[in-house]
Automatic annotation (TrEMBL):
Name of the protein in its database record: Integrase catalytic domain-containing protein
Gene Ontology MF terms in the entry: nucleic acid binding
Gene Ontology biological-process annotations: DNA integration
Domain (Integrase catalytic) ranges: 1-153
């Protein structure tokens, strides 16, 4: 993923939804392997699905993953449905990073804040063993005791930036 000429390497665990993001200096296989080493220290994976980027399908990458008992699965060209979860994460992460960059955060801090914002619920569910509830709850209008700022995106295709707003009430339970 590219944002403002910076290369960001994302890993998404499809089972838990956990996201790891790395700001890379170059798009070389050695740099990608360095990112994977920090991930493989914590946990191992049985397989990794990648697109056809040259740094991800090289012999060096294949040998590295083979040495860690990990199978490299290459998705078909121009078929984003093969790794759709990663594509959705990239879109959401890009918007969040741009939001933090608009607030004058550095690229590293923006990536860290955006990744944390997207994975905090998944971490809590994993460690606290909480299940998602999908029961029906009536919408209730509650006035907020303390006003707070929110970011929202206006409806429409032409507006791609988030706007600062003031939350005065909350709908739902």
């Amino acid at each position: 993923m590219f944002i403002n000429s910076a290369t960001i390497f994302n890993l998404v665990d499809t089972k838990t939804g956990f996201i790891c993001s790395f700001l890379m200096k170059t798009r070389k296989t050695v740099d990608v392997i360095g990112c994977l080493e920090s991930v493989f220290k914590d946990c191992s994976y049985q397989f990794i699905v990648v697109d056809n980027a040259p740094e991800l399908v090289s012999n060096e990458m294949f040998e590295y993953l083979y040495s860690h008992n990990c199978i490299l699965i290459i998705s078909p060209r121009y078929h984003s449905q093969s790794n759709g979860k990663e594509e959705r994460v990239n879109q959401t992460l890009r918007k969040l990073i741009e939001k933090f960059l608009d607030q004058n955060y550095s690229m590293c801090v923006s990536i860290k804040k955006a990744t944390t914002a997207m994975t905090i619920d998944k971490i809590r569910q994993y460690y606290c063993e909480e299940e998602e509830e999908t029961s029906f709850i009536l919408n209730v209008y509650k006035k907020m005791p303390v006003l707070h700022y929110i970011y929202f995106k206006r409806k429409g295709k032409l507006d791609s930036k988030f706007t600062l707003g003031l939350c005065i009430a909350e709908v739902g339970n």
